[in-house]
Amino acid sequence: MSYVVDFTTVSTTGLESSPVAAALAGLRANEARYFKNKYDHDFTVDAASDAAETIDWVHRILREERDLVISSRPLEATEFQVEDIRWAYVFYESGLSVNVLYTLDDAGKRAVGFKLSDGMEVPAELSTFKFARQKSKLAGTIRGSYFVIKGEY
To answer: Across the beta sheet with 85-92, what order do the strands follow?
Structure first.
């Protein structure tokens, strides 16, 4: 079932099994606010069981680009296109959010971003990344990192 994320009233709907559910919900709401303000796009997520194709695409990029396998269980995912950018997000039980920005124009930007919810530890599989901090009214302190995608997906 699809869920339109409301960034004015943050809800843990779909994320209840996470030990940092409130912070992860804030992180998800922070993303929803960004897309609404920048692109007038309603950020809508699906349960992981309904988003296998999106999750597989994100996991393929992680595996082929950096030999990364996320150990946490995916809870939700979304995939959409705004302007000429294909976006995908996967929200994990641990509090991790992985997003793919994939510009459809061959000369455009392509990257994978990682965001850690407030209160979670850096997952072992991401220990080689350096994380920058940013404050968010919705999510508290968000730690983020990224890498540039080199291949075609």
So the answer is: 2-4, 44-47, 74-82, 85-92, 96-103, 110-116, 140-148, 132-136
